[in-house]
Amino acid sequence: MTIEKPKSFQEIILRLQNYWAAKGCAVLQPYDMEVGAGTFHPATTLRALGTKSWAAAYVQPSRRPTDGRYGENPNRLQHYYQYQVLIKPSPPDLQDLYLGSLEAIGIDMALHDIRFVEDDWESPTLGAWGLGWEVWCDGMEVSQFTYFQQVGGHDCHPVSGELTYGLERLAMYVLGVDHVMDMPFNDPDAPIALKYGDVFKQTEQEYARWNFDVANTEVLLRHFEEAEAECQAILDQEHIDPKTSKRIIMAHPAYDQCIKASHIFNLLDARGVISVTERQAYIGRVRSLAKKCADAFVLTEAGGYTA
Amino acid sequence: MPNLLIELFSEEIPARMQRRAAEDLKKLITNGMVDAGLTYAGAAAFSTPRRLTLAVEDVLSESPTVREERKGPRVDAPEKAIEGFLRGAGLSKDQLEVRDEKKGQVYFATIEKPGCPAADIIAEVLEHAIRNFPWPKSMRWGAGALRWVRPLHSIICVLSDDVDVTVVPVNIDGIESGNQTMGHRFMSSGAPIIVSGFDDYAATLKKEYVILDPEERAQMIWQDATNIAFASGLDVVEDAGLLVEVSGLVEWPVVLMGEIDQEFLELPPEVLQTSMREHQKFFSVRDPKSGKITRFITVANRETADQGATILAGNQKVLSARLADAKFFWENDLRVAQNDGLTAWTARLENVTFHNKLGSQKDRIDRIVDLAGDLSIATSADAGLAQQAAGIAKADLSSEMVYEFPELQGLMGRYYAEAAGVEQEVANACEQHWQPLGPSDGVPTEPVSATVALADKLDTLCGFWAIEEKPTGSKDPFALRRAALGIIRLVLENQIRLPLLKAALEHIARFANVENASSVAFDLLGFLHDRLKVYLRDRGIRHDVIDACVVMDGNDDIALLVKRAEALSEFLASEDGENLVQGFRRANNILTQAEEKDGVEYSFGADVKFAETDEERALFGALEKQGPKIDAAMQAEDFAAAMGAMAALRAPVDAFFEAVQVNSENEIVRRNRLNLLSQVRNTCARVADLGRIEAA
């Protein structure tokens, strides 16, 4: 079976969306906050907790301020896209499902060398870890494949299977492009054909400058403290809402503050104002927020709570 | 007798765990079988990325019946006791036997444990093995509770002989054993493989593109790699660890050789090699004429219609991206090194914590600089160069390349120091001061390198001793034993004469708030002595010989101490030496007893005029003659000569004990003889504490 090669970045995304939709995933939209990776989306972090079944797939714009290269580096970006799939409990044929997705985007299994190479995943900021692999296609890492064992300090029962595709890198490979900015974003034969660089070259420059040299570190430090305090304040509220008399635990709003703190930490890191020793302390503070949010989520209905 | 085949088929097992896991499977199953009475003729274990396999030959078809005889209570014992015995034996009273014993009639029970079919035993043993498998890290998956290294999919467990093939039924959390497996993930037909026994299993797997034996895969890879390189007049750089790893990543190895882009060939070969090995698991291919690494070898897990062209092109692309990073780091680092020298990098280490109680890396470097200055007298190094080297030796920790490839630390330091234009000895010290990294690693011999290496290790030991972070048992997180051994080898192999106690004491003063600096230093010296004992024991010097030397003055000068121990060891191996030690021991015993009895110490005043026999007079003469010789030799630290002079005492000491009765009736004569023996003891004690030498 040979599948026609995709012609653009967006076509690869669309094919993944269609593939996972056909496999029964809820195709969600990106989370509307700045995050470092698709894992931070509450559809992964929080939904991996508790006993309820879950199957979701989505694109997540991700920001890593330290990776900014002003759009010059062929492979590195401070803003990029991840494709994320989370299925709980992990189905027994998850590897085959995953390989099917590679075929769907035009990777011919008969010509390429796909390997599952040990890579244990750990997120110190989320208090999460899992075992799995990085998936190699002809020596290139195209995805991260993880069975979540713990999130926010909680053991995962059942275990979620998580797939993360680095979309730009994967697409560049499939499309045979050497520099990310040269990659066709939409159909190259469209009347207005746009390349990745047409969309993002300028923003990479703008953000790289801001991330590295301009972002006001005092303001950021204050925002970090505020997000931390707000997260705690939200979680300190009574479970019963005095207005509606309903049991409403605000795990998600609290988790938003945790995400915010995490991203601010990344910005501060890019500004070079965090020393090595402080680094660990900051990561510890974000982790402690993530844990508290996880503690709160498992007390909610979505987290498997039953009265 | 039937053969047993077990296969545990799972998702990809980490390469580094496969071989160990296959051995563990073999051990768990065969030990379990033998414990249950099920013996066998032979067993072999195999692994691929997706399976652990065990083949056991000639298994008993059932465990033998075991008879056990138990002695019970007497026939006239209380009924309760008899009931208890019956319960324990699982028998009724009429099944017991009554025998006449000395004390009367006693019940005996013969308990017969009937044999158990092999299948039952194996099922139990296999389940136990799977549930208790010693994976370094294991996980759960789906909604289950079972733990395995990655999801376990199927189990083969069959017993087969010439006639029958029987599946041993095992059901582990819903995974039922059977006689089926799968071939290569991509190359096989995809239909389940049905197996009847090991031979058939291995042969069918091969047809379905799986080479079961990791050894065979490794051999294939190495042979193909060397052939393919040879055909282009090139050599593959040997890397046994990588070979094992790569053979654990494929079921059907296909070796492909690719080019490294011209623009990267000027990178240091170690950088090329490390980047290719760590990131891509490529072998490096060297041009024997230029010595440069010019190509790579990758091992794919499949054959393709285009002979691997797509795979190779992909790998080449990835490598170029990786090396572009490495080149970027290399060029940036070189620019910094050439423009700012390495001191700017060292200064940046102020923000890098070495240990929270011992300050930053910069603090550490400052201490090492001072210490290197102190030590350079002992090491005959140029103090200025040694301090300069100490100041920049760890600068590469700040470089981008070392951040990316920590294992290149030291080596990059040398490259960058060379780029910064420092003296070659200083640049060499950047690389060599980390050495020796283990018992088989070389020891730096250039004075500047040796000085910084010594200062580095001594600083580490003093620091961790000062904050009481000493190694305990098997725990040595800061590799302090290795540092101590490093110091020992550095001073011995370079013959550096260094009183370590003084050096340590002065250096401990450089750490803040250390109480009891002198007891810390003494304790550290004790640790160094302990490591020295281990080191010398491996070199055939007995521990009591070392003990006899460790208690002597100057024991913190390791080179001196070892010189003494070696001379003593050699001396003891001679006939004179052995006998003299016996004589010494005899003299010492007599003296100790007399001193205890008389409550005095016989230490001086022996006078030849009270001597009654020729043997006494001869011993006086020998002591008078050899004493100054021993002293002179000791002064010159010529222990061999000192012991040679001491050996001349053997004959007169032997003759003395032969002919002379120490405990004379005449108290003056007795005291004189005791004082003479004390002179013998003191003379010997100048060389080593022979009292610590154990009798042969």
Please estimate the helix content of chain B: 40-55%
Report how far apart the termini of chain B are.
55 Å
Largest interface by residue count? A-B, 38 and 45 residues
Secondary structure tally: strands of chain A = 9
Strand element count of chain B: 18
Distance between the termini of chain A: 51 Å
Helix content of chain A: 25-40%
Structural class of chain A: alpha+beta
Cα-based radius of gyration of chain B, to the nearest Å: 37 Å
Radius of gyration of chain A: 20 Å
Instruction: Give me the number of helical elements of chain A.
Output: 8
Low-confidence stretches of chain B: none
Structural class of chain B, by secondary structure, is: alpha+beta
User: Largest sheet of chain A, if any?
Assistant: 9 strands, mixed
Mean pLDDT level of chain B: 92
Largest sheet of chain B: 7 strands, mixed
Secondary-structure element sequence of chain A? HEHEEHEEEEEEHHHHH
Shape of chain B: flat
What is the assembly state of the chains in this entry? Answer: heterodimer
Q: Quick gist of this model?
A:
The complex is a heterodimer of chains A (307) and B (696). With 307 residues, chain A is α+β, with helices and mostly antiparallel strands.
Explain how this protein is built.
The complex is a heterodimer of chains A (307) and B (696). With 307 residues, chain A is an alpha+beta fold. Chain A is built from 8 helices and 9 strands. In chain A, strands 1, 2, 3, 4, 5, 6, 7, 8 and 9 form a 9-stranded mixed beta sheet that branches. In chain A, strand 7 and strand 8 form a beta hairpin. With 696 residues, chain B is an alpha+beta fold. In chain B, 51% of the residues lie in helices and 13% in strands. Chain B has 25 helices and 18 strands. In chain B, strand 9 (171-172) and strand 10 form a beta hairpin. Chain B is flat. Chain B starts with a strand and ends in an 11-residue tail after the last helix. The chains are: A alpha+beta (307), B alpha+beta (696).
